[in-house]
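Dear support,

I submitted the protein below through the web form. The confirmation email said the job was done, but the results page showed an empty box. After a refresh the structure appeared. I'm attaching both so you can tell me whether what I see now is the final result or a partial one.
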Amino acid sequence: MPKRTPIEFGEKAVATIAGSPAQLAKKSKELLRLRPSFSPRRSPIGATPGVLHGTSTGNAPPLDVIAWDGEGQVHAFEAEELQQAADALESYRYVWLNIRGNSHLQTLEEVRRVFDLHALAVEDAWNVPQRSKLDGYERHLFLVLNHLALASEEDVPEEQQALLQAQQISFFIGERYLITIQENNQTLFEPIRKRFLDPHGQMKKRTPDYVAYALADAVVDSCFPLLDTLAEQVETAESSIYVRKHRGVITHLLSLRRRLHELKRLVTPMHRALTDLLTLDSSLIHKATRVYLRDCVDHATRLVESAEVAQDHAKSLMDVHIALSSHEMNEVMKVLTIISTIFIPLSFIAGVYGMNFDPEVSPWNMPELSWFFGYPFALLLMLTVGVGFAFYFRARRWF
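What the results page shows now:
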């Protein structure tokens, strides 16, 4: 199953972009290539809408099915064919089908046929990445969210550890069914599955729209640990700045700002899509579920606001870093200027007495050169001038 392009994240990522300007330029190009690219499955210009283009990669994905009657009876199994999930509706009232992988074209075409899904919605589930959104159709709702998580060691090479992965989750919410399509084979919703199988759980008495809420809430909550990690790194950078251990911190802050921007770019449309789902006038979303959706929207709102605060914090730290660097440079230049100002007249005096005029030729040719105290007098004169300048600068509070 193909993996989404990871977004570099964390301290190890910051370490990879430290180095000379030439190395930074090279690493910047590599970082740009890590950003999500356009899908190779995109429909050609002028193609018929709703038709899936491209080819399948890998085998058919696993089909996790949970069927329940809304009164406490539940049956969970892994289907070998999509028709088994549809047949479960004859014995049970509701069905949740989770397709762990969207790269098998025949599977998506078959799920569209079996459950009578709209072709445009299935095309968006196939042609990733899509922005988070909500589309309403005659028989079902189509919701797109992005699940964010840190890449595990088996997902990425060792040199790209601590990366952030964004995975599109497509929801098809019907009256008696819920279909979710992931991008890969990960078991993202195992906690929700356990709630179904819990003998004392209430999930098996809920409707598909409530299950969709529970999954959406899990997707939103998965972003908070990532945001906390980024915010903690921003605070660490702030401490480094104020204790004047900020060598290379500007590179770190730029990296954090880009990651916070990427996080905000993903969660802002997700908040908008959940808000649309809450306010949508549809019989597929029951009144009892809207109460929980309101709480999910509140979580998404807090997530967006926290991302904005962290991003502004990183930006302000960059300004502080630049101001402190300028202040330190001004202090250095002030000290050098004062030293230069003091030594300019001393250099003048030394230069005057370094002229090779013979006092025997003329009484005006530096008669003090023949004086017994001539050399001590020149040193004392230079010391007096230097000390005088120092007291003058001190009196003017220039240092």
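Response: this is the final, complete result; the empty box was a page-load delay. The CA atoms of residues 70 and 207 lie 7 Å apart.
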